[in-house]
């Protein structure tokens, strides 16, 4: 029996939720609006909200002056590359742990997660030295490997969670029906595993895109992604609000859209299936 | 079903991940441990190159410096503050979003958006466009109400960073808790309501216990990420005005003042402290997740 909800109550909830929702979203909205203002309008006192002469100059300037496309490309390569590499290494591992669990599987999984708690700063300098010695400091390749290692435990856990949900009965049924290993993998397992792998990829692209500690400390110029590009606005250029806003909008827009699409997977993935 | 054959195949499939993670953990850790017993200052004049061994000198210096305890407190206050705000706020917001309303999907999208914003972007946007003492929007707001504007990042720096990071993580907590609330059996709530249990009691005896698991998960995941907050401090205060967390203190010793020996000792201390937290959390996880 559905509870009868009075329209009045529903209206109150609607107003309250929209109010809080807009308040939380406001910094993003404000950044977006400011990116279309002139620098003068951006710092106008009192602030102007919607009624100003919209201009796209900031986007042009940001792109021309600091070669935004190069940072964007670095971000795409690092986020994409590290996710791809991570998934290639993690799928077999998660697969075998989910389907051929041993006595120590749980320990290994927890140990893997505990490496996430190793304070990055404690091992920053050694990694820095190793990269210098190998002559790969400030290269995209090195960043791909480092970011992959950062997210590997999460990737394995997420895949493990998804694989664990594939019912073993179906496998056994297929085997009873005389399916060959090849057919079993192609027609039975893969279709059930793909959604989980896709969600894992989606979430890890988001995590890798926003990763800041290693990208800030291990890149100078050549391999610097958008995180470092934005940080370079820290001062005194940060005082150019409109340009900062344009750069920020361009940096977060793709991942924000990706994030909205993956909100359901976020819950399952990042909580390792503990909350559904 | 697991035969000897499939077991060895499984071991083979796992080995790349295990070996990589083991190497990723052990190699730098052993190097850091070695550095921590050396007097190593690569850019000092004259440069001191890894002179082993100075015993526990670095540890004693790092541990007894007043900056150390300050940074531990800062870390605890920061992580604790953010956890408190996001968990309590997340529960309240999740309950509100669970109510019947118009445009629930859109509100949800608005609320979770900050989670996907790059930390460097959110720190800079907050620093310049909201907390700036001259042009910040909050300053205009304060002036509008005839109040004296606050110089956020110098007057209440720790609070400011807690606010910024809470804004980024509140969406995560809300989304997880909302999902958990939605899985609650509504008949149970209705029965309690029929029996005349007031809202507070329904919350305390039915909703909160149901959320326990989700709350544990939120705290665990956030702690993992929050213990290593870096970008937000780097971009806003650069560790000044008492916002130096343990992570940031070690970072300054190693990279800014290039005292690798001293910084490494701090790094090892950070690893030990993090492990204490980790063991504690892992116990809870082990209990809560069926691996």
From TrEMBL, chain A:
It comes from the Bacteria. The chain crosses the membrane at residues 12-33, 71-96, 117-136, 142-163, 184-209, 240-261. Pfam families: BPD_transp_1. The keyword Membrane applies. GO terms for biological process: transmembrane transport. Residues 72-262 form the ABC transmembrane type-1 domain. Signal peptide: none annotated. It is a multi-pass membrane protein. It is found in: Cell membrane. This is Carbohydrate ABC transporter permease.
UniProtKB/TrEMBL annotation, chain B:
The keyword Iron-sulfur does not apply. GO terms for biological process: transmembrane transport. InterPro entries: ABC_transporter_permease, MetI-like, MetI-like_sf. It is found in: Cell membrane. Residues 72-281 form the ABC transmembrane type-1 domain. Pfam families: BPD_transp_1. Belongs to the binding-protein-dependent transport system permease family. This is Sugar ABC transporter permease. It comes from Pelagovum pacificum. The lineage of its organism: Bacteria, Pseudomonadati, Pseudomonadota, Alphaproteobacteria, Rhodobacterales.
């Amino acid at each position: 029996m559905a509870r009868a909800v009075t329209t009045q109550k529903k209206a109150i909830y609607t107003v309250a939720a929209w109010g809080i929702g807009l308040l939380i979203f406001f910094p993003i909205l404000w950044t977006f609006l400011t990116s279309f203002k002139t620098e003068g309008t951006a710092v106008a006192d009192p602030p102007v909200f919607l009624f100003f002469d919209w201009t796209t100059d900031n986007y042009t300037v940001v792109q021309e002056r600091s070669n935004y496309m190069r940072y964007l490309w670095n971000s795409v390569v690092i986020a994409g590359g590290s996710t791809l590499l991570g998934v290639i290494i993690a799928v077999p591992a998660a697969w075998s742990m989910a389907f051929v669990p041993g006595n120590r599987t749980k320990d290994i999984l927890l140990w893997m997660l505990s490496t996430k708690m190793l304070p990055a700063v404690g091992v920053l300098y050694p990694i820095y030295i190793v990269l210098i010695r190998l002559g790969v400091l400030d290269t995209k390749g090195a960043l791909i490997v480092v970011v992959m290692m950062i997210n590997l435990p999460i990737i394995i856990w997420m895949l493990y969670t998804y694989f664990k949900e594939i019912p073993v009965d179906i496998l056994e049924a297929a085997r009873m029906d005389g399916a060959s290993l090849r057919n079993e993998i192609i027609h039975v397992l893969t279709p059930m595993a793909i959604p989980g792998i896709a969600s894992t990829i989606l979430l890890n692209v988001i995590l890798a895109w926003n990763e800041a500690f290693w990208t800030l400390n291990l890149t100078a110029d050549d391999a610097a992604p958008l995180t470092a590009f934005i940080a370079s606005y820290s001062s005194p250029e940060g005082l150019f609000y409109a340009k900062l806003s344009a750069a920020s909008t361009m940096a977060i827009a793709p991942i924000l859209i990706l994030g909205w699409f993956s909100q359901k997977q976020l819950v399952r993935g990042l909580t390792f299936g503990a909350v559904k | 079903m697991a035969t000897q054959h499939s077991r060895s195949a499984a071991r083979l499939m796992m080995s790349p991940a295990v070996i990589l993670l083991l190497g990723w953990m052990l190699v730098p850790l052993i190097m850091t441990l070695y550095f921590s017993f050396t007097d190593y200052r690569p850019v000092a004049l004259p440069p001191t190159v890894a002179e082993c061994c100075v015993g526990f000198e670095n540890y004693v210096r790092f541990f007894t410096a007043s900056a150390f305890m300050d940074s531990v407190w800062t870390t605890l206050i920061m992580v604790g503050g953010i956890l408190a705000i996001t968990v309590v706020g997340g529960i309240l917001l999740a309950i509100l979003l669970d109510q019947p309303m118009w445009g629930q999907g859109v509100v949800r999208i608005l609320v979770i958006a900050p989670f996907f914003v790059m930390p460097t972007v959110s720190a800079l946007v907050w620093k310049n466009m909201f907390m700036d003492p001259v042009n910040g929007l909050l300053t205009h707001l304060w002036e509008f109400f005839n109040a004296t504007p606050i110089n956020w990042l110098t007057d209440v720096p720790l609070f400011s960073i807690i606010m910024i990071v809470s804004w980024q993580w509140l969406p995560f907590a809300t989304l997880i808790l909302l999902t958990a609330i939605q899985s609650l059996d509504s008949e149970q709530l209705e029965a309690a309501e029929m029996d005349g249990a007031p809202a507070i009691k329904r919350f305390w005896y039915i909703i909160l216990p149901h959320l326990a698991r989700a709350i544990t998960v939120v705290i665990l995941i956030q702690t993992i990420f929050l213990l290593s907050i870096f970008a937000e401090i780097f971009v806003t205060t650069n560790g000044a005005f008492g916002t130096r967390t343990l992570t940031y203190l070690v970072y300054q010793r190693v990279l800014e003042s290039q005292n690798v020996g001293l910084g490494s000792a701090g790094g090892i201390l950070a690893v030990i402290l993090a492990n204490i937290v980790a063991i504690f959390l892992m116990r809870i996880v082990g209990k809560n997740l069926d691996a």
